[in-house]
Amino acid sequence: MMDISIIIPTFRPKEYLWECLDAIDCQTIPHDRFEVLIVLNGERLPYENQIKAFLAQRSGLPCRVLYCEERGVSAARNLGLDEAKGTYICFMDDDDLITETYLEQLFRLASKDTIALSYITAFDDGTELYRPIYITENYQDHRERVSYKDVRRYFYVPYCKLIHRDIIGTRRYDKSLKNGEDALFMFLISDRFRWVRFAEKTVEYRYRQRPTSAFNAKRPASYYLSNMLACQHKATCIYWAHPSHYSFLFYVKYILATIMGCIRRLRNVKQ
């Protein structure tokens, strides 16, 4: 078993996937200690051939291309988890970047009860101007362990983390959700770790902001309201199935976060 599996779901990938893979190719950790699982879902051709042609030019990059017939990022990530061989799991979006010491530094900090976290910056597509985002407000610039309950915003997203595979186990993303599946997944596995540790600030996950991304698509108010209620219901079922295993405070924070997130999205819905 190798050290790290990087899972990258992709749908109709464009040139930004090559930038993502180039950033992984430049990692300081030896290539034989990690693998990259590119999970293509939805339309297979011509994208699979394009990916394989690019990888043929990067023969040293340890990649496997998987195809997931079922559409949706959750289905793709679940397939990646099923196929992963690494002791640790690293999720990335196909248009994002990481700094050169990202994998090496996070690997030094992670363990079976501790998730390693990086600093997060965002940049607009077509630029190289990196800036902090709202999640970064939870960043703590020291090497000591911190309770996961104190950094709730870091659990809105699957990226910027290195997670031991025993923490995840057989648990998988909820494919019925189209938004909020990341935060629900992190809540689902929150009974299996206690701590987080932050890498130094130079270790960055760089989140690309694209106006045309699925996240920025505007939908009717009913969509956000129904999705919020679905997330709350699923989290409530998870909590009350094993209330002694989960933090009630973290559960309450999750519920409040879904409400605030819905309010933010409702401010820009289709009329």
Describe the structure.
With 271 residues, this protein is α/β, with parallel strands linked by helices. The chain folds into 2 domains: 4-209, Spore Coat Polysaccharide Biosynthesis Protein SpsA, Chain A, CATH 3.90.550; 221-266. Helix content is 34%, strand content 20%. It contains 8 helices and 12 strands.
- Assess the beta-strand content as a share of residues: 15-25%
How would you state the average pLDDT, rounded? 92
Which term fits the overall shape? globular
The count of domains is 2
- Spatially, the strands of the biggest sheet line up as 3-2-1-4-10-6-11-9
Cα-based radius of gyration, to the nearest Å: 18 Å
Uncertain segments are: none
The CATH topology of the largest domain comes to Spore Coat Polysaccharide Biosynthesis Protein SpsA, Chain A
Helix/strand class: alpha/beta
The CATH homologous superfamily of the largest domain is named Spore Coat Polysaccharide Biosynthesis Protein SpsA, Chain A
**Largest sheet: number of strands, sense, barrel closure:** 8 strands, mixed
How much helix, percentage-wise, in residues? Answer: 25-40%
Distance between the termini: 52 Å
Q: What's the SSE pattern?
A: EHEHEHEEHEEEEEHHEEHH
Number of helical regions: 8
- The CATH top-level class label of the largest domain: Alpha Beta
Q: Write down how many β-strands occur, each being a DSSP E stretch of 2 or more residues.
A: 12
CATH architecture group name of the largest domain = Alpha-Beta Complex
